[in-house]
Amino acid sequence: MAVHTDRDELRRLQKEVAQIARQTGELVLDYYRSGDFSVDEKSDDTPVTSADLAASKFLSQALAALKPVLPVLSEEEIVPWTERRNWSRYWLIDPIDGTQEFIKGSGDFAISIALIDQHTPVLGAIYWPTEDTLYQAAEHLGASRVRLGQEQSIQVRQLRDPGRDELIVAISRRQPEQKILSRMNPQRSLKTLMTGSCSLKSCLVAEGSADCFLRVGPTGEWDTGAAQVIIEQAGGSLVSEHFEAVTYNRTASLGNPNFMVLGDPRIDWVSVFPGLV
């Protein structure tokens, strides 16, 4: 069994990463509030802004200055497989998760930072700048939310009747609702909660505001790294749509499968998402 980063080191790193996430959030907010940013299109037809690039540069430099010195993998600065294939520990970052929301002005975007150790996320921080809210977790240390300076432990919502109670489904502002609900059991009572950003929807499940989130469509490992450790430490899980583990830096491809963030583990999620297994 792999030995991951010890608790004392995780506690120290968690404090340092929280500060870096907030500093990055301030940088991104300056671009957001001024509207002074450019928008380009990447090779995969997704947008990237000058704010994404500035945040990526700041994060990469700040994380590289921490001890121990570890490599950084950013959505905006892909490291070739030949260089990263033997990495045992590294930082995985999404400088702005929810770039479309940033551009459209909804405020639903976040800075996402994860520490990957032996292909497993062991520390995660997701900062929501417009709400001054930080979600954070580390292996064996639990998950918490820091809002307006007040820290509170978070856990997934525990249903009174896991087999029958209404489920709250976090869904995207930009994706047709039926694309998600059509994959769910029509016999189960459902309510939707809209927000942007993959990582923020995952955090809604972790804090108990929603019960599940299904992502259909292209994403990268940076979209799930921090979210995975936060949801797991809050008592839930993050798995592929076929209920298989999501992996990190195992292949040259950094793409994710369609994935689900699931709350209350007492729920029979296979029956909620029939036909996906």
UniProtKB/TrEMBL annotation:
Q: What is its main location?
A: membrane
User: Which cofactors does this protein require?
Assistant: Mg(2+)
A Gene Ontology biological process noted in the UniProt record is:
inositol metabolic process
Q: Which GO terms describe its molecular function?
A: 3'(2'),5'-bisphosphate nucleotidase activity; inositol monophosphate 1-phosphatase activity; magnesium ion binding
Protein's UniProt keywords contain Acetylation:
no
Binding locations of Mg(2+) 1? E75, D94, I96, D97, D223
For binding Mg(2+) 2, which residues are annotated in this chain's numbering? D94, D97, D223
Q: What class of enzyme is it?
A: hydrolase
Name of protein: 3'(2'),5'-bisphosphate nucleotidase CysQ
- Highest classification ranks of the organism: Bacteria, Pseudomonadati, Pseudomonadota, Gammaproteobacteria, Alteromonadales
